[in-house]
Specification:
This protein is α+β, with helices and mostly antiparallel strands. Among the domains are: about 80 residues, 2-Layer Sandwich (Alpha-Beta Plaits), CATH 3.30.70; about 90 residues, Calcium-transporting ATPase, cytoplasmic transduction domain A; about 140 residues, HAD superfamily/HAD-like (Rossmann fold); about 110 residues, Calcium-transporting ATPase, cytoplasmic domain N. It is about 50% helix and about 20% strand. It has 24 helices and 28 strands. The chain has a seven-stranded mixed β-sheet, sandwiched between helices. α17 runs parallel beside α22. The longest helix is centred in the last third of the chain and has 36 residues. The chain starts with a strand and ends with a helix. It binds adenosine-5'-diphosphate (ADP) and magnesium ion. Adenosine-5'-diphosphate binds next to α15, β20, β21 and β22.
Length: about 725
């Protein structure tokens, strides 16, 4: 079950909710993503979903009254005005639907407003307090204290209430509790302005922190929202504007220039250029005309198109990708898990240090005053919330995923960003991955006793049903109409070729290994290229030679990978060793293995993975016949997967366009994300440790502490949003 929590901006509460939901009797496991506000619950059997749902709603409301829980995103979806960036002119008008629950909902909006007024009043009273302190005579000091106390209560009453409520839930060490204790302490010491100041700064900090988190989420959401909002459906009454969600298979839509395509379909009428950049990151427009496939999320160029819808809105490419990216944040990265664990220990440790600090020095150090050390221990408490980290790390992962999606790269989880930055060996498939996979027949060589026509007729029959690039190239070259009724018992042998019966004749089309498997002897063959042998009734009828071209960016991409620290590049190919080696040399790959059957690829990959002890092993394939290896790799990358459901399912990382350079971009983005996370950790911990050290040596100041605490949180979140604006090497070099 998946629930959406709208308005949840507090990391500590998120952790708490996750922990408490996991402990519910009907729940096996729960995972809450702070980045998207989605709570994924794995339920135990024998419980009604409704029951679990109600229990969760009750729990969430008791902890965070303003958070809205809903079963599906639709209720929680917030709409943002269309002023956002995107494409200069191509845009559906109206509102931009942002699929991520963000921004305050209605109830929360009012709450926000009230909190803001209270806070501003508190600040006013706080300042008035200082004026009184400076001007009023000593006998009226009670007035000054009253004003400070008023400011304190106004800024802090809900913090104190929450602290007590959470103690009831057995969650002692949350930031509300820490602030409450610290300020109570200040009151005991009769430090009135300090008590009020801490609560006010804490309030201001929370406010800006919420803002920062909201903004970060919103920009990520905008990055990945490329779905259309409306559609123009052709109906008997003419053209009607409908909600894009209502688009169904079989509808005929009119797509005007500049509009987003609402659902996948086929063009019935019109010629236009499509901007595929929302899906692929590729801004070069693609020409499309009658009969061409068109995918949701693309932006129509210069002409009106009429399109027959082949997939419902929800099952179309844009929505599938959006769901995929959202779900990506459910798979937590290592750093995120580490920080969650870390914060479990950090807070109690600091709290106990604070207690020790209040008691031990005054007893041990002669002349030390109880009052000074008590005050210093309060400062410790203020600094003990790890909010900055707990907030910024998950947002960093999500930011990295969002940034990659801008390049047409879908990363299915934060954990794969971790794998990418540690990648040290890349293993590639050849056909369709490093080469274009667009074969051309460059030579036909009939055997003695056979004519060219015999050879081509047999080849065309053999490849009639094949979807392999080789088969398609042969069909295209032969230009022979095959009577399908005459074909029987067709089978495709992966990594070898095809076999079919035509009018009682057995035809084989495939590589050396296929024919040798049928006891057909072959001479040595020195041809340059991929050779497909054709046999008729167990006799060699000749062969065809096919050529394939290396992809334009392949060499550059492989070299860039090396620059990014990848140690080894390997190619595994089902093609013959001669062709494989030649391409391997051309691309300067470190290792090449040809003549691989699918199971050989698995075995070879296993060996490479075992040998690679100090890094991650990545496999890049075309996602069709490489599924087993994709699954075995630390991260499996599928190439050119746009529009292919199978590849999108099988891979961990999906490259929407066919460009090998996108692999380099992904690694680069992963490394940058990592760098930002490290910066955030150093920044947050650095500030805290500095304040703690200063405090220990008596230089601490409560204002400084609270400033450090909220300042660190806001700084780290702002730093995180840099990931979205990251300009990689590929943009820097471009003029
Ligand atoms: P790669 O690993 O280079 O992507 P594949 O595993 O897809 O190659 O195919 C391996 C080899 O099997 C091809 O090079 C070809 O010799 C043979 N083969 C596969 N399918 C066919 C087919 N439909 N017709 C002829 N030969 C085929
Ligand atoms: Mg292949």
């Amino acid at each position: 079950m998946k629930l959406f929590l709208e308005g949840l901006n507090c990391a500590n509460c998120a952790g708490k909710i996750e922990k408490l939901v996991s402990k519910m009797p009907n729940v096996r496991e729960a995972s809450l993503s702070l980045a998207t506000g989605s709570l994924v619950i794995e339920e135990c059997e024998g419980f009604a979903q409704e029951e679990t749902y109600n229990a969760v709603v009750k729990l969430v409301h008791s902890l965070e009254p303003h958070v809205v829980v809903s079963m599906n995103r639709k209720q929680a979806v917030a709409t943002a005005p269309c002023g956002c960036d995107g494409h200069e002119d191509g845009h559906n008008h109206g509102t931009h639907e942002v699929a991520i629950a963000h921004g305050p909902g209605h109830a929360q909006g009012e709450m926000d407003q009230r909190q803001k007024i209270e806070l501003i009043t508190a600040i006013g009273l706080f300042l008035l307090g200082f004026v009184f302190q400076a001007t009023l005579p000593a006998n009226l000091e009670i007035l000054t204290i009253g004003v400070f106390l008023g400011a304190y209560l106004l800024a802090g009453y809900h913090v104190i209430l929450l602290a007590f409520r959470n103690i009831g839930h057995g969650q002692i060490f949350d930031e509300n509790f820490l602030m409450t204790i610290a300020t109570f302490g200040a009151l005991v010491l009769m430090q009135w302005p300090e008590a009020a100041g801490v609560m006010i700064f804490f309030g201001i900090g929370e406010y800006f922190q919420d803002r920062a988190v909201d903004n970060a989420r919103r920009s990520i959401a905008e990055t990945i929202s490329f779905n259309a909002i409306t559609a123009n459906r052709v109906s008997p009454e003419g053209e009607v504007v409908i909600d894009a969600k209502q688009v169904k298979v079989g509808d005929v839509l009119v797509i005007k220039p500049g509009e987003k395509v609402p659902a996948d379909g086929v063009i019935l009428q019109g010629v236009s250029h499509l901007d595929t950049s929302p899906l692929t990151g590729e801004s070069y427009p693609r020409k499309a005309e009658k009969g061409d496939e068109i995918l949701s999320g693309m932006i129509n160029g210069n002409a009106v198109l009429k399109v027959l819808v082949t997939k419902d809105y929800e099952n179309s490419t844009a929505m599938k990708i959006i769901h995929l990216i959202e779900e990506a944040s459910d798979k937590k990265g290592k750093t995120e898990k580490f920080i969650t664990k870390f914060s479990h220990y950090y807070t109690p440790i600091v709290v106990f240090s604070a207690i020790a600090m209040a008691i031990i020095p005054p007893l041990v150090i002669s002349g030390a005053s109880w009052e000074t050390w008590f005050y210093q221990s309060l400062i410790f408490l203020v600094v003990s919330c790890p909010c900055a980290l707990v907030l910024s790390i998950p947002i960093s992962y999500f930011g990295g995923i969002g940034r990659a999606s801008k390049e047409g790269v879908l990363i299915k989880g934060g954990n794969y960003l971790d794998v990418l930055y540690q990648s040290s060996v890349f293993v590639f498939d050849k056909t369709g991955t490093l080469t274009q996979g667009e074969f051309k027949v460059i030579k036909t060589e009939p055997a003695s006793g056979f004519t060219e026509a015999d050879l081509l007729t047999a080849a065309a029959a053999g490849e009639r049903y094949s979807n392999h690039p080789i088969g398609k190239a042969i069909t295209a070259h032969a230009q022979i109409v095959v009577d399908e009724a005459s074909l029987k018992n067709y089978s495709e042998i992966p990594g070898k070729g095809t076999q079919v019966e035509v009018d009682g004749q057995m035809i084989l089309a495939g590589n050396r290994s296929l024919l040798q498997g049928h006891q057909i002897n072959l001479n040595e063959n020195e041809e340059e290229g991929t050779i497909v042998y054709i046999a008729i009734n167990g006799k060699l009828a000749g062969y065809l030679v096919l050529g394939d071209m290396v992809k334009a960016n392949a060499l550059a991409a492989l070299q860039q990978l090396k620059k990014l620290g990848v140690k080894k590049t390997v190619m595994l190919s089902g093609d013959n060793a001669r062709v494989a080696n030649q391409i391997g040399k051309q691309l300067m790959l470190d290792e090449v293995l040809g003549d691989c059957l699918p199971q050989d690829k698995v075995a070879a990959f296993e060996q490479i993975k075992t040998d690679n002890k100090d890094g991650k092993t990545i496999f890049v394939g075309d996602g069709m016949n490489d599924a087993p290896v994709l699954a075995m790799a630390d991260a499996g990358i599928a190439m050119g997967a746009l529009g292919s459901d199978a590849a999108i399912e099988a891979a961990d990382i999906i490259l929407m366009k066919d460009d090998p350079m996108d692999i380099v971009k992904s690694v680069d983005i992963a490394k940058y994300t990592r760098r930002i996370m490290i910066q955030n950790i150093v920044l947050a911990l650095g500030i805290k440790i500095t304040v703690l050290t200063m405090t220990f040596f008596g230089m601490g100041e409560m204002y400084l502490a609270i400033f450090a605490d909220v300042g660190a949180a806001i700084l780290t979140i702002l730093n995180t949003t840099r990931i979205l604006r990251y300009r990689g090497f590929w943009q820097k070099n471009r003029v």
